[in-house]
Amino acid sequence: MNKNVLQSFTALFIFLSIFTNAQTSYKKFGIEVNGGLREYHGDLGSSLYFKNSPDYQGVGGAFGMYINSSFDINLYGSAGDIGFYKTVRDAERLDYVRIGFRSRVTEGMIGLTYKFNNGYILDEDVRFKPYIRAGWGAMSSVSKFTPESLPKGNEGYRQDRFWIASHWNAGLGLKIAVSDAIDIVISEQFNYSFDDNYDASPYVVAGARLNSAVEGNKPLHDIYAYHSFGLVFNFGGDGGSSYKIKDEDGDGISDDFDICPNTPEKYAVDTVGCPMDDDKDGVFNEDDMCPDVPGLPAFNGCPDSDGDGIIDSKDKCPNVPGLAEFDGCPDSDGDGITDAEDKCPLKAGTVEGQGCPDSDGDGIYDHVDVCPATPGVAANKGCPEIKEEVKEKIRLAAKGIFFESGKDILKSESFENLNILAEIMLEYNEAKVIIEGHTDSQGDDVDNLVLSQNRTESVKRYLVTQGIEESRMSAVGYGESKPVADNSTSKGRAFNRRVDFKLVY
């Protein structure tokens, strides 16, 4: 193949690849580029289908336009060499001679293509698209013959001949759809010349039939075949000359790759043809009122985090199940006051009591009543008043608590008085007691502080054995820091070594 022809073919291929790939999906026009082998059949013999050599290269192209589902109209042609050589015995030369020719042949044609993928024989959108083609046109040839191909003595004939003639073309082929814009094409074309114009006719060719102009015999008109392989670039319009992507739902994804082939028109789709669902909640973006947050189909894709039937955007308490009348907030005790505003959310109360009842009827609502089950007075935070005789009883009992010298071990004579304190605490079961320990000033300050704390803990442990909850008692040692008498006298120091009790609410 001529180097310039090859370069031109390559440049055309690159240009068409760039240009046609930018077209729309359904194409009405097609441009074909191809290359292949050209073989001769004529007066000298035949090399069709590689019977003999040589075979020569050629390039070609075509332009097709869609007419209807069955027919395209085409302009097409090719250029390249054909030729044939053989050895025969020349009677005039009395020797074996090599006769033959090589011609540079260029042809152009107009024709019709019948497509088998017309909806009657095969579906229009199949990938493998067979066709047959026939046309008429003109060809030109520049031929060169071996010297022996010319009769002896015909020095007046030139060996290089230029010829133009009309001819018929017929062929068949197969297009294979690569995409909507590109087909691979394999074709077989036959060109029949109306003139015997390649192989030395109208000269007398040794071993061949004679030209009618010489001896009245009918010559064998030349045929050459073009076996080609190429590409078709489809572009423009919405016709059917090219492969059409079958896309029933019109979402731009071929049905071959569309996992959701029946997607309604309004939905944007992903790479596999399914409607977009950015938050993966099963509600498509176009139907999702909350497209960025996973939700429920019942609420058009919006979430209901607490499952109370009220979507989060309208739920004032989105993380706690509630009632519609309270905008999604709960009222656990059913008193008409939401839990967030209810000081007693688990006990039905009143608006005046901020959602709390007055369980003991003392006029003090439970949320501020330290003793909600026992009627009391406001001065004692709703707890009953401690009578003076009870207070005095506590003071006297406290004076009868004794420890071994310098130790935190209770003496046995202390137990009776501690039992009196236990009885009072059981009676006032909502009250708490503060146990305070004190020492005199003799000895080390730190040691006295530790000793006073340990003695209060001893008292606390004893009261626990009498049924008093540890949580109702606190023990504090003050050492020698809070004297009630003069530490310079033995009597005063005795008063300072003490345990005090305070009943509080």
Lateral arrangement of strands in the main beta sheet: 1-3-4-5-6-7-8-9
Biggest pleated sheet? 8 strands, antiparallel, barrel
CATH C-level label of the largest domain: Mainly Beta
Helix content: 10-25%
Structure description:
There is one protein chain. This protein is an alpha+beta fold. It folds into 3 domains: 3-235, Porin (Beta Barrel); 331-381, no CATH class; 388-504, 60s Ribosomal Protein L30, Chain: A (2-Layer Sandwich), CATH 3.30.1330.60. Helices cover 15% and strands 29% of the residues. The chain has 6 helices and 12 strands. It has helices spanning 3-20, 212-215, 388-399, 415-427, 445-465, 490-496, and strands at 29-42, 45-46, 56-66, 71-90, 95-115, 128-145, 160-177, 182-193, 223-235, 432-438, 473-477, 498-504. Strand 3 (56-66) and strand 4 (71-90) form a beta hairpin. Helix 3 (388-399) packs antiparallel against helix 4 (415-427). The protein starts with a helix and ends with a strand. Residues 1-25, 155-159, 202-218 and 238-243 have low confidence and may be disordered.
Q: Any key phrases for this structure?
A:
505 residues, alpha+beta, Porin, 60s Ribosomal Protein L30, Chain: A, 3 domains, eight-stranded antiparallel barrel, 6 helices, 12 strands, 15% helix, rod-shaped
Write the layout of secondary structure elements.
Elements: H1 3-20, E1 29-42, E2 45-46, E3 56-66, E4 71-90, E5 95-115, E6 128-145, E7 160-177, E8 182-193, H2 212-215, E9 223-235, H3 388-399, H4 415-427, E10 432-438, H5 445-465, E11 473-477, H6 490-496, E12 498-504
Helix pairs in contact: 3-4
